[in-house]
C-alpha cells in the first residue's frame, strides 16, 4: 500500500477539491473483485465474487461521487489509521465534513449508538442507520417477533428516534 499511497492521497484530494457536496452523504463499504496476489485482499464467503479489495468511502448521496475513500489494508501500521473499527473508519472518513450539518447514512456494519451520538454531538451531523438485532442498545419491545406485516413501532429519546418495521 505504501507504494501507491502518494497517488492514492492525490486522488482523494482531487475528489474533495472538484466535488460539490450536497446535504446527504453515505458511508459505504465496497469491494472490488480481485483474485491476484495482494496482502490486503479479503475473502467474504457469502458474496458472489468472494475475493477482493475492501474499500470504505464517503459518497455524496445525490451525485454518487466519492468524496473521501480509504482502502482496507487488514492490519494497519501504527499512526492515525491504526484502528480498523467501524467507529474509527467513519471518524476518519467524515473529518472533512465535520460540523457542516449534513446527514450521514450508514449501513449495519458502521451503525452503533456510540457512533450516532458522536456524530451528533461532536461533529454536528445527523445520521441514519440500520442496527443488527443483536445490538444491546435496542429496547426489547423492538425485538419482539410476530408483528403484523407492514406495522411499525416508534421510539423516541432526546436526540434519537428508533423504528422497528415488520416486513
Automatic annotation (TrEMBL):
InterPro entries attached to this UniProt entry: PGBD
Domain of life: Eukaryota
Any Pfam family: DDE_Tnp_1_7
Domain named PiggyBac transposable element-derived protein: residues: 2-164
Annotated protein name in UniProt: PiggyBac transposable element-derived protein domain-containing protein
Organism: Eumeta variegata (Bagworm moth)
Amino acid at each position: 500500500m505504501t507504494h501507491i499511497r502518494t497517488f492514492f492521497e492525490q486522488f482523494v484530494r482531487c475528489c474533495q477539491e472538484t466535488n460539490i457536496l450536497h446535504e446527504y452523504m453515505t458511508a459505504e463499504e465496497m469491494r472490488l473483485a480481485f483474485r491476484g496476489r495482494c496482502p490486503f485482499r479479503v475473502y467474504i464467503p457469502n458474496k458472489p465474487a468472494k475475493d477482493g479489495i475492501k474499500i470504505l468511502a464517503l459518497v455524496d448521496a445525490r451525485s454518487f461521487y466519492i468524496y473521501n475513500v480509504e482502502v482496507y489494508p487488514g492490519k494497519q501500521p501504527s499512526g492515525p489509521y491504526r484502528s480498523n473499527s467501524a467507529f474509527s473508519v467513519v471518524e476518519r472518513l467524515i473529518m472533512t465534513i465535520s460540523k457542516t450539518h449534513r446527514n450521514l447514512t450508514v449501513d449495519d456494519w458502521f451503525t452503533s449508538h456510540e457512533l450516532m451520538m458522536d456524530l451528533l454531538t461532536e461533529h454536528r451531523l445527523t445520521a441514519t442507520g440500520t442496527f443488527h438485532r443483536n445490538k444491546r442498545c435496542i429496547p426489547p419491545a423492538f425485538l419482539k417477533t410476530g408483528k403484523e406485516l407492514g406495522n411499525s413501532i416508534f421510539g423516541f429519546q432526546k436526540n434519537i428516534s428508533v423504528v422497528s418495521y415488520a416486513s
